[in-house]
Automatic annotation (TrEMBL), chain A:
The lineage of its organism: Bacteria, Pseudomonadati, Bacteroidota, Flavobacteriia, Flavobacteriales. Its EC number is 2.2.1.6. It catalyses: 2 pyruvate + H(+) = (2S)-2-acetolactate + CO2. GO terms for biological process: isoleucine biosynthetic process; L-valine biosynthetic process. Coiled coil: none annotated. Residues 8-88 form the ACT domain. Catalyzes the conversion of 2 pyruvate molecules into acetolactate in the first common step of the biosynthetic pathway of the branched-amino acids such as leucine, isoleucine, and valine. GO terms for cellular component: cytosol. It comes from Lutibacter agarilyticus. This is Acetolactate synthase small subunit. It holds the Pfam family ALS_ss_C. InterPro entries: Acetalactate_synth_ssu (IPR004789), Acetolactate_synth/TF_NikR_C (IPR027271), Acetolactate_synth_ssu_C (IPR019455), ACT-like_dom_sf (IPR045865), ACT_dom (IPR002912), AHAS_ACT (IPR039557), AHAS_small-like_ACT (IPR054480). Belongs to the acetolactate synthase small subunit family. GO terms for molecular function: acetolactate synthase activity; acetolactate synthase regulator activity.
TrEMBL record, chain B:
Its EC number is 2.2.1.6. PROSITE patterns: TPP_ENZYMES. This is Acetolactate synthase. One of its GO terms (molecular function) is thiamine pyrophosphate binding. One of its GO terms (cellular component) is acetolactate synthase complex. Its cofactor is thiamine diphosphate; Mg(2+). Pfam families: TPP_enzyme_C, TPP_enzyme_M, TPP_enzyme_N. Residues 210-344 form the Thiamine pyrophosphate enzyme central domain.
């Protein structure tokens, strides 16, 4: 069995109703769970970018990307391993204000990319961003204080290798 | 209409006239040269049907007895003509009844343009009467789909639909049009779609790859070609023939590749796959070079991938990049239009001589002939066999007929034994294996090529899934010849139960009505044959008939299809009995 790895799949598409359904169907058909997903505009006007994170084999990644790219409104799809991308995930932790002056939490806040973005009488909110492991770590440390709410964003990723979408679009036309 | 590519709008447009969205639908189809559609009316598509009524001089509509019949008929039409089949259905159940046919067309790369009515746009999402999310439902099985909510979108969307359905690797598209968009008005002008910025229909041929392929071909001692439907879809039958005749390479086909090359061609070494011919299956695991042309290494073709052609280098000529290395790792992939590839490779390949290698195919053919084929075509047992029926049809039609098959044992016999002289003559449900495909597909095929003989070969099981379409024959007078091979069993499942489930025949025995009487009720001339001495005369009568004809042949109950590669076995472990 080929090694299962964490792959980041970037898909550039037209900005149409129903594309998400079409893309997610390709994962569904192969029984692949989507770990996270982010959709946003891209560097090109009217071109949207989907970022999926999945745990699959390299062979599967290759085939899935082939099928994604085959969709009419997909301009191009890529898959990358973690060492080929620069990425970020953001999380919000809502914690009871009674813990605000807790030293251990203060200690955690020294973590390079975490800060408090709201404080009320009842709760405060920490925003943290970083790699998956950074957020996981933070989560494990804060969990014992009782998280009132926790939410984490999908991955956003920029690739180290070039992705020549503009050139491709020019070539298509 | 931000969602659509607006390029066409900027181009010169013909003079504009205000018409309804529904009328625009018909005008767009006529602009695309499509003047025949199959369908079934209902509430949400009524404005379009009203225009069909008004345009009846120019535009023909075939009312089937079920939407599934409509879409299979459109598939039959598309397969014999190469033109997209057109289907209309209403919202809700009308649309969902199309899904099997859409999935079938998707997996067999058949171009279709399906147009469904939808509830008015202000009702979308309200669970209105006959509302269903057909865009969501059809997404995984369409090449493209789109919901129109504004009449002004119609010309551009339909132009796109035709372009997508026909170009590259063809496939089904579905356009869902809300009722208000059908009633709404637009300034009509039509511009055919020639490109879509996010879609490259035909990849650019890389000459280097072609050179690499030619080098391997020129060096090979034991090359084997396996071609598929891509040769037909790419209209490359002549180029393919020129290529194999120059290189002298033995060539086998997939089920859907049948008829691209005439059966009698000396380099045609049969069909590969689960019930394919002995020689090409066995020798797949002896060749030193496997040249796949317009085929996709379906599991029914390859058997166990772990033992499939491991000794051979593989060249894959394919238009769909996603098919390359999907199932079988290739040495060289030529991703391009097959007609272009085969034309341009000709000067690069040497005249070949593979007579010794061809002898190996002959030897194995002789074994298959002695063990299987001879008995099937000249049986001595009392009951009639499916093979001899196909033999009889070959004799009467001289191999010039379009053979439409349903799904099951009879289909395998049709593929194995039908003679094909002309391309686009094997109309069948390959990838999806849709029982019930045969009868409606034959009706569509006959309308596509009215001057050709169209013979449907159907089992008693599949026939009863769509025999309501006898009504369509009655109404349209489509002169199809329908042969039901009746063994009172779901024969293929029964065969597997016999071989792999210790003869526990769970729910495969079938009690059927009097098929001759049933055909008679639809005013179709019919007869039943159960004795060998009556078979030839019955087939003669059927083929001689100028009208639709129904022939039931009572078949030996426990007849099996061999050779067979059991699921999970290697192609070279093909069983002869």
């Amino acid at each position: 069995m080929e090694e299962i790895k964490n792959y980041t799949i970037s898909v550039y598409t037209e900005n149409n109703v129903g594309i998400l359904n079409r893309l997610s169907a390709i994962f569904l058909k192969r029984h692949i769970n989507i770990e996270s997903m982010t959709v946003s505009k891209s560097e090109i006007d009217n071109v949207h970018r989907f970022t999926f994170v999945v745990n699959i084999s390299g062979n599967q990644a290759h085939k899935v990307v082939g099928q994604l790219e085959k969709q009419i409104e997909v301009i191009r799809a890529f898959f990358h391993t973690e060492d080929e991308i620069i990425y970020n995930e953001t999380a919000l932790f809502k914690i009871s204000t009674e813990h605000l002056y807790n030293e251990e939490i203060q200690e955690r806040m020294k973590f390079r990319r975490a800060h408090i973005i709201a404080i009320t009488e009842r709760y405060f909110v920490i925003e943290a961003s970083g790699l998956k492991e950074d957020i996981d770590n933070m989560y494990d440390k804060l969990m014992p204080y009782g998280l009132l709410q926790f939410v984490r964003s999908g991955r956003i990723a920029i690739t180290k290798p070039k992705m020549a979408i503009s050139e491709l679009l020019a070539e298509f036309n | 209409m931000k969602t659509l590519n607006k390029e066409a709008k900027h181009q010169e447009t013909a003079q504009e006239v205000k018409i309804s969205g529904a009328e625009a639908v018909i005008k767009c189809l006529l602009e695309e040269g499509a003047d025949l559609a199959y369908g079934y009316p209902g509430g949400a598509i009524m404005p379009v049907y009203d225009e069909i009524y008004k345009y009846q001089e120019k535009f023909h509509h075939v009312l089937t007895r079920h939407e599934q019949g409509a879409i299979h008929a459109a598939q039959g039409f598309a397969r014999v003509t190469g033109k997209p089949g057109i289907v209309f259905a209403t919202s809700g159940p009308g649309a969902t009844n199309l899904v099997t046919g859409i999935a079938d067309a998707q997996i067999d790369s058949t171009p279709l343009v399906c147009i469904t009515g939808q509830v008015a746009s202000h009702l979308l999402g309200s669970d209105a009467f006959q509302e269903t999310d057909i865009i969501g439902i059809s997404t995984p099985v369409t090449k493209w789909n789109y919901q129109v909510t504004d009449a002004s979108e119609i010309p551009e969307v339909i132009a796109k639909a035709f372009y997508i359905a026909k170009s590259g690797r063809p496939g089904p598209v579905l356009i869902d049009i809300t009722k208000d968009a059908q009633f709404g008005e637009l300034d009509f002008s039509y511009q055919k779609c020639k490109k879509i910025r996010s879609y490259k229909a035909v990849p650019d041929l890389e000459i280097e790859k072609l050179k690499d392929a030619a080098t391997l071909i020129n060096k090979a001692k034991k090359p084997l070609i396996v071609w598929g439907q891509g040769v037909i879809l790419g209209e490359a039958e002549q180029e393919f023939k020129d290529f194999i005749e120059k290189t002298n390479i033995p060539s086998a086909c997939t089920g859907l590749g049948l008829s691209a090359l005439e059966t009698s061609h000396p380099l045609h070494v049969g069909m590969v796959g689960m019930h394919g011919n002995y020689a090409p299956n066995v020798l797949t695991n002896s060749c030193d070079l496997l040249i796949a042309i317009g085929m996709r290494f379906d599991d029914r073709v390859t058997g166990n991938l772990a033992t499939y052609a491991k000794q051979a280098k593989v060249i894959h000529f394919e238009i769909d990049a996603a098919e390359v290395d999907k199932n079988v790792k290739t040495e060289v992939a030529v991703v391009a239009d097959v007609k272009e590839s085969l034309t341009k490779i000709m000067p690069l390949v040497n005249k070949g001589d593979h007579n010794e290698w061809m002898q190996e195919f002959q030897k194995l053919y002789d074994i298959e002939h002695e063990n299987v084929i001879y008995d099937q075509l000249n049986p001595t047992k009392e009951g009639l066999t499916m093979g001899e029926v196909l033999g009889g049809i070959n004799k009467e039609t001289n191999g010039d007929a379009v053979i439409v098959s349903d799904v099951g044992q009879h289909q395998m016999f049709a593929w194995r034994y039908a003679n094909f002289n002309k391309t686009r003559s094997n109309v069948t449900s390959g990838g999806l294996g849709t029982m019930g495909f045969g009868l409606p597909a034959a009706i569509g095929a006959k309308m596509g090529v009215p001057d050709r003989e169209v013979v449907a070969i159907i089992g008693d099981g599949g026939y009863q899934m769509t025999c309501n379409e006898l009504g369509t024959i009655l109404q349209t007078k489509a002169a199809v010849k329908v042969v039901v091979l009746n063994n009172n069993y779901l024969g293929m499942v029964r065969q597997w139960q016999e071989l792999f489930f210790d003869k526990r025949y769970a729910s495969t025995e079938m009690i059927s009505p009097d098929f001759v009487k049933l055909a008679g009720a639809y005013d179709i001339e019919a007869q039943r044959v159960s004795k060998r001495e009556d078979l030839d005369a019955a087939i003669q009568t059927m083929i001689a008939s100028k009208e639709a004809y129904f022939l039931e042949v009572v078949i030996e109950q426990e007849d099996n299809v061999f050779p067979m590669i059991p699921t999970g076995a290697s192609v070279s472990d093909v069983r002869l009995s």
